[in-house]
Amino acid sequence: MGLTAESSTPEKDVQDLEKGCEATALSSIAEVPSQVEIDGSRIPSGSSSDHENNGISKISTNQIERPGVLEKTLSLVRTREPNIDPGPPPDGGYHAWLQVALAHFVIFNTWGYINGFGVFQSYYTEALNRSPSDISWIGGTQIFLLFFIGTFSGRATDAGYFKAVWSIGAIIIIFAIFMTSLCKTYWQTFLAQGICMGIGSGLIFCPSIALLATYFSSRRSLAIAITASGSATGGMVFPVVVQQLLPKIGFGWTMRVIGLITAVTLAPGFFFLRQRLPPRRTGPFFELQAFREPAYTLYAVSMFLNFWALYVAFFYIGSFGRNVIGLSQSDSINLILIINAVGVIGRVIPCYISDWKSGPINALIPCSVVAGAALFGWIGVNKEPSLYAFSIVYGFFAAGIQALFPAALTSLTTDLKKSGIRFGMTLSIVSFSSLTGSPIAGALIALRDGDYLYAQLFAGVSMFLGLAILMLSRYNAVGWKLMARGFPIVIRFWHISA
Asked: CA nearest 452: which of 340, 323, 314?
């Protein structure tokens, strides 16, 4: 506590007087005030000789280092929380579940927007007259920046800047959507929807999940599952809006309606998302020693390969339905709705099985098996019913991969103080595969003059290679024991233990 004109805690007045000189230096006040007020009475602080008689030496004002403009600015926006332990997570209650609802809308407006990108993929390919590969760079850049910037925004949250970081991110997202409504060319769309939207998403995604996880312990899996289902609800709502409004009011006003939906659903978060833990010092961004552990290294490689393939179907299933199966624009959007709708239960059920019985890696492996098999099965799809069946199967198990990814990583880390750093490192790694996977698939489609075979093979092979390396990672962690759960885990996110 600094020495000020008024004391807000009378029981610590003596400590305040004793630490007056030190507090003065920290607050960059050149001289100690001649008087202080305690309980309404003004008391002399003492002359220089008084301090010397009391064993307190006078600090030379020339030795006081005043904070710079940046430091002063950051001090104004930093979360003002007492530096005390708030105790264990409440694990429920009104405020905790309110954070879940608000975080659900954050995922709704970030991952939901990304999962619904397939509807934009189809529209932009025709409207902008660009190749599928070019268009997929827009969605891929969104995912890349969400992951990559999320590593840094989460650390800023730990340091106490949640409200500032989150507010800036929300404003950027809304701005990006309204700017997209004005775009006429490819590069304008790439800047607005790819870069700006990706930056804004990265600034609000990790901080919101970081906040949420501090409110729950035993119910954390349920809270995370409810929150993560926002990617499915957003992946359904945004395509429906485009489907219903685009033919009637045009692209520009359709995007403005989406911008309004985003603004309305994000606004409550500005007022009611609250950082529960006090600011704390974070660890380093990278831990190179982690790559000396085969289990972690193999897991990072396996997730790179899995995420290389993961979003190919999300981005291209709509255009596949139109160009190969011959579906209408409306029916092709229905495919995107289905693949996202089944993701709601696809996130909840695998997480429940993981916590209840199997452990995260044992639940992640079958999800990867079925998702990879579905991608190869996609090659044989040539009729509408089989395409709907593929959407249901792949949507469910791909959602399981997304939900189990952080929990499985934590189970491989014996020292949970390092789990945060390692999760941030892995996010950075998979951000590059998420960036390049769909554009590579688009280039392969163009190479075959619109045939999807090479893209389907690329996705299926990548998923199965990731599966094989994931099994090697599990072997290095627990051996070939069939029922081994791995290390005891709960779903944790990187900022918690950083």
From this structure: 323
